[in-house]
Amino acid sequence: MTAPQGLSDAPPADAAGLYRTVRLIRRFEERAIEMVRGGLIPGGIHPYIGQEAVAAGVCGALRPDDLITSTHRGHGHVLAKGADPVRMLAELAGRETGLNAGRGGSMHAADVGVGICGANAIVGAAAAIATGVAWSQRRAGHDRVAVTFFGDGAVNQGVLLEALNLAALWRVPVVFVCENNGFAATMRVEDTTAGSITGRAEAFGIPAQTVDGMDPQTVLTAASCAVGRARAGDGPSFLECVTYRFDAHHTWEHLARPRYRTDAEVAAGMARDPVDIQAARVAGAARERIDAEIEALLDEAQRFAAASPEPDPSRALDYLYSDGLRSRAGTA
Amino acid sequence: MPILSYLRALNRALGAEMERDPAVCVLGEDIGVAVSNVTTGLLKRFGPERVLDMPISEQAFTSFATGAAMSGSRPVVEFQIPALLYLVFEQIANQAHKLSLMTGGQVKVPVTYMLPRSGSRAGWAGQHSDHPYSLFAHVGIKTVVPATPADAYGLLVSAIRDDDPVILFAPAGAAERREDLDFATLRPVPIGVGRVHRPGTDVTVVAVGHLVHDALEVAGELAASSGISVEVFDPRTLYPFDWAGLAASLERTGRLVVIDDSNRTCGIGGEIIATAAEEMRLIVPPKRVTRPDGAVLPFARALDLAVQPGPGQLRAAIEAVIKTG
Questions:
Q1: pTM (2 decimals)?
Q2: DSSP structure class, residue B50
Q3: Of A157, A139, A205, A267, whose CA–CA distance to B25 is shortest?
Q4: Of A161, A303, B163, B222, which has the fewest CB atoms closer than 10 Å, so is most exposed?
Q5: What percent of chain B is modeled with pLDDT above 90?
Q6: Which residue of chain A is at minimal alpha-carbon distance from B54?
């Protein structure tokens, strides 16, 4: 991975910038769900709808050359960190023009050029990777910070707890961001998690804070503090962002309709909408201009994805090895 | 000439690569005091920023190494016990190995996993005596199993310089090997290239790791006692395998016996025989000598030895394929 360069795409973290980010994520996800239904995105997605404030606030606190790892529910992180939405949508559609040349898809989007080290489909697995990334950057003399996103379900994974220990032990410049949306897939956090989420970090001596994860500005303020601490050499921090997933765990729910939360509960969870909260801070005319820009961009993204070529099947295992080693074919 | 021991060869390769490239670092448990005799002197020479003693957190430090490798470092991870690989199979097979493809080539993971004293160490029982190299070859991790000190040196150097994850098994059965050689002749050994230790015309024995030495011993005995000419082929790398080297050997002999310290089902020996049967010259059915199916190494010495492939079984297998035709 080379140092990110030439970065000007990362959205600014003022009120309008935050609004643009949360609105972009929301509309991107709504269109992606349509494309899943239309068959243009294979395999479905884990929609980020409802959690936009976390990605926008945390990434708003980062420099363009800072680094993140993301999750199976990662579209918001990737867009907020500055990946091109057009190539991102092409990736979801499995096209050669996608961020990962169609080899990663929804759960593995990466754009190293803007500091996105990859989204990880194993819950909690990226925390130790991000710790290594941040350690190596510091060793090379950079003052870059790494952020690792994960959900409440990850706080019971051994490797994540081990990573907290390593990061604290060596004061690694990494920020652990837990998006507590109340559910690990269909399991309620109170049914899966003993003790408290922040208590896990505190046990390792890591400063931990629980914040309102529905307000982009609040998240930005808390994340700026954590990132500043990491950059100053004061080690890792842990943020628990309390949020709510408005849509399905995965789009298969739209068909399977598993019952793990009531309609009333969902309505209550959606009462505070991060897009509305941030919209109220931006003047109407500016907001309308941003909305229009986003729709035009996403129109273009959908056109581009549909028009882009599918990867060549004879090149299915391109990129498997860095030295171009070709593995034996499965048939003679 | 000076004598180079197997573990000293690994130590020398590590030191040389750390000297040559500041990106190289070593991490693992108890490596500061060099409990496994591979990292001796490195902490003093290179300091704690490059020789990192790890807490007993194999899953985290394996992925920590992945992150470091993605980000400019070239970590070498030592595991004291081969069974720890089961604990970190996710981190190696599902993370480090897959990141290059899944990111469309944006990410490289130049990490080396090093297993000093893999396989049976005599008396270490069920959870410290496995030899799971076939699992890693199956997954597609570049997998090397050097048999000699010079190859241990050369393959570790190549592993560290490789831009992909590479796993090096240093069998306990080879760890006491010593070689008389001029240190100035030590060279990187390319990954994926086998070595004929002894040429022969009647039968090719493919031997993995420490079993190369058993094969050489049996070959010598059979030449003296029965005039059977055994070619001993050491693949050195199990993935990617030197199929061309094996095919050339079978062109000469037409007969094949494999000795492999894996459990029988899905061990690398099965793959070698399958490929030879599909693509190469065989004049009689091949044979393999392996651990039994599903073997768990029992503690008592006699039982430990009973499930390991050994020279007696190899001799019988060679005689059987010669007798067949």
A1: 0.96
A2: T
A3: A139
A4: A303
A5: 99
A6: A166
